[in-house]
Each structure stands twice: as C-alpha cells, then as structure tokens.
Amino acid sequence: MHDSNITTTSANKEMAELRVICDRELAELSQNYPEISLAVVASADARLISFKSAITRDGNRLAAMTGALLGLCESMARELSAGACRSTIVSMDDYTCIIVHIEGPQYPLVLAIGVDHSIMLALSRRVALDLATRISSRMYGSS
User: Fold this and answer.
1) Is residue 143 over pLDDT 50?
2) Looking at the DSSP assignment, which residues form a beta bridge with residue 42?
3) Is residue 46 within 8 Å of 109, Cβ to Cβ?
4) C-alpha distances in Å from residue 23, one per residue of 83, 93, 99
5) What is the predicted pLDDT for the residue at 8?
6) Rg of the chain (C-alpha set)
7) What's the burial of 93, exposed, middle or buried (CB within 10 Å: 0-12/13-18/19+)?
8) In the chain, which residue ranges form alpha helices assigned H by DSSP?
9) Most CB atoms closer than 10 Å: which of 11, 96, 110, 135?
10) Whole-number Å distance between alpha carbons of 87 and 38
11) What tens digit of pLDDT does each residue of 39-79 get?
C-alpha cells in the first residue's frame, strides 16, 4: 500500500508540473498570437490539463472532443498503415482548429489551437507543431 501512495504522489506531482508548463506556454502563445483565440492541452483520455480561450469557457468539453478526435485520427492512421497521427485540421466556415499530438514517453497528450481566418493556415499549423515540441521538450527534457 505504501508503494502505491508513492506512485500516486509522484504521478500527481508530474501532472502538476505538466500543468504549470502548459499554462505558461498557453499564456505566452496568446500574448504572441492574439489571433489564436483557443488553446487547450488535454490527455489522450480527455482530461483537461490547460486551457485558454476567448470564445468558450468549457475546457472540459473541448478536452473530451480533442482527445476523441485525436483517437479517431490515430485509428485511421493505423487502418491505413500510415504510421502515427501527428496532426489534423478541422476547417469550419468561420474558424479552424489544428489538433496536434504531443510526443512524450509517459502521457499521451494532445494540443488544439483555434483561429479565425485572419491568420494563415500554414502559420497556425507551424505554431501548433512548434508549441507541441516545446511542451514535450520542457516536460520530458528532450531537445
């Protein structure tokens, strides 16, 4: 029983550290790119880790949808024998969401950013991929 308490405490500490890293990164993102009105980091099992949004207040719902969408894309990649899903884009009439897998050995994570059409899609995707790499690097210590 004592070992499970240590494991739980360690996992909680790692999750708290991850939340601090993600909160800092999302705050910097929104400061540097005001066109990005949504940013969410979630675990692949749809638990909200960090959230910043000018358009909605329900981060938990977005975390669930983001995790489910990444899971669907990963299933499609496996079905097509195409390797792992790295990102997907959901294009709407007035909005675009870029969903990116965050690499890491411990927690499968997903990042979603949302933009209106005032920012180029390629730039939005590049920003999302770079942010995912920074989060992974800061959390897992890889360069």
Assistant:
1) no
2) 48, 110
3) no
4) 30, 29, 17
5) 66
6) 15
7) exposed
8) 2-32, 59-79, 121-140
9) 110
10) 16
11) 999 988 889 999 999 888 899 999 999 988 988 998 999 99
**Non-local CB neighbours of 39 within 8 Å, separated by 6+ positions:** 26, 29, 30, 50, 51, 52, 53, 111, 112, 113, 114, 131
The percentage of residues in the chain with a pLDDT greater than 90, rounded to a whole number, is 61
Distance CA 120, CA 104 (A): 28
Please state, in angstroms and rounded to a whole number, the distance separating the CA atoms of residues 113 and 115. Answer: 7
Measured torsion, CA atoms of residues 36, 41, 47, 52, in degrees rounded to the nearest 10:
-40
Number of Cβ within a 10 Å radius of residue 141: 7
Residues 83-98: pLDDT tens digits? 988 899 999 999 999 9
Let me know: does 70 contact 78? Beta carbons within 8 Å.
no
